[in-house]
Specification:
The protein is built from four helices and five strands; from the N terminus they run ααααβββββ. It is of the alpha+beta class. Strands 1, 2, 3, 4 and 5 form a five-stranded antiparallel β-sheet that branches.
Length: 191
């Protein structure tokens, strides 16, 4: 039996199950998944910090090397400066490595007279049990060319035996050349 045509019930369509069975239950959709929890990017931050640290360390090492090289390099800015530094290293400090940084390449023969003087003083120190002190006065520069200069200086060699002091003055001439800074190439006793 159908309800009358003008009733409210007749206007509502009947619901049927999709399979057509009257007693079948509707499948229930799973509840929506909770939104994915975003993890803090620790790994990315650690990689960035490690890269920045490495970059700072490399930059620091490069700066340290440059500063060390600049402050420990011998001063070869002028002919008289290089001769003064050479005499200090070679005759007073007896530091052949530092003295070698202030000489021309292949200048051993040109500097042999000064080497002979130092060897003679060392032999006398051992033989007579005295200590020689080498000093020098003002350095006179005479430029012969824009890349070559002669420097003259009086070496003052003194020693003391008991209460007696003795001093010897020797005039020396040094030839310097410009090449990556001034360098000492020749030394000879002036006559």
């Amino acid at each position: 039996m159908h309800p009358p045509a003008d009733s409210q019930v007749s206007r509502v369509p009947t619901q049927r199950t999709p399979s057509g069975e009257a007693g079948a239950e509707q499948p229930v959709a799973p509840p929506p998944a909770p939104p994915a929890r975003r993890r803090f990017p620790w790994r990315r931050i650690l990689v960035i910090v490690a890269a920045a640290t490495a970059l700072f360390c490399l930059a620091g090492a490069a700066i340290a090397y440059t500063l060390y090289d600049r402050f420990t390099a011998p001063d070869r800015s002028a002919p008289d400066v290089v001769v003064n530094n050479y005499l200090q290293a070679f005759m007073v400090d007896k530091n052949d490595v530092l003295a070698g940084l202030m000489t021309c390449e292949g200048s051993a023969a040109g500097l042999a007279p000064l080497s002979a003087l130092r060897d003679d003083l060392a032999a006398r120190e051992q033989r007579f049990q005295v200590t020689f002190i080498v000093k020098w006065g003002p350095l006179d520069v005479r430029t012969t060319d824009e890349d070559v200069a002669e420097v003259s200086v009086d070496l003052v060699i003194s020693y003391r035996v008991e209460s007696i002091s003795n001093t010897d003055r020797q005039r020396w001439r040094f030839v310097t050349r410009q090449g990556d800074g001034w360098r000492v190439c020749e030394a000879a006793r002036a006559t």
